[in-house]
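hey so i finally got around to running the thing on that chain from the lab meeting. sorry it took forever, my laptop kept dying and i had to restart like 3 times. anyway pasting the input first so we r on the same page abt which one it is
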Amino acid sequence: MTGLNRRTLLAGASALGAAALASACTSNVDGPPPAPQGGAQNSANAEPGKKVKVGFAGPQADHGWLNAINTNARTEARRYTDVELVITEGSNDAATQASQIDSLINQKVDVLVVLPADGKQMTPAGRKAMDAGIPVINLDRIFDSAQSYRTWIGGDNYRMGLNAGNYLGKVLNGKGSVIELAGIDTLELTTQRTQGFDDALKNFPGIRKVGRAAAEFNVQTGQSRMAELLQAYPQFDAMWNHDDDQGIGALQAIAQAGRTGFVMVGGAGSKAAMEQIKSDSSVLKATVLYPPTMAASAIRLARLLGQAKGMGDLAEQEIPASVTLSSAVVTKDNVDQYLPFSFE
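ok and heres what got predicted. didnt touch it at all, straight out
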């Protein structure tokens, strides 16, 4: 929970020159698909039904989390014989992604899943699909208008920061100093993660946040910004890092500086982070989840919408208008429970 990175938009419309839709259909002809996982195993909704053509448009997979989003979508679609997935080549350019969505509309998909390069800029594209009678599942970065999507599903950025802050507050027994390595400050999700963290620290008057830097969700910037923080603050007791991918760079800087004596909590839930937590081999002691499995859930919801079904475990007959995923804190005590759902 973005080379540039999963959150950065590429400037200009030059990418439009390629017209930019490299669609690929996920077929189920290469043998039977795996059985649906999770709750669908025990649901009548898992039985094959009307064929549903699902369009999927997301940003460029230039980040581990975004690559996991694409993998989850493809894998989930293969679980169902009644789902055809048409997935575009991801782009961080809003105009290019809008063109890709136009193509999916023209292909008459039954349901459209969109993880927008930028929620605000892509709002008209979602509205265009909705006006064409195609229900839109808005994944992660939310559109500005509820008229642009039928259902939103995503992580809880505010609670990521809140849970990170409460975890560190307890680890520090309510006393000490902390720093924060954020993502991209121009994005609302970064503001929400910071706000949650700051609100949690209000529960611990003996803890002060002494430093903060934005690392832009990539390894290189994570390393350089962390090096700057280490130089500026010779002593602190804990740190909150918004993103495990940029955390790779941060941990490199920490190792190069030979710094220990503080606790680090990360964000998103990468496999590398969880393995370090399990081995207890670094300052990284926890990570707060921002699950890429939301893409698999989006495919399930798209299938149900296309078949005019509800969610079997709910009393209501309609798919909910929004689904907010939990932000669990993964530590050495529970890492084995979450490691199978981590991403590379």
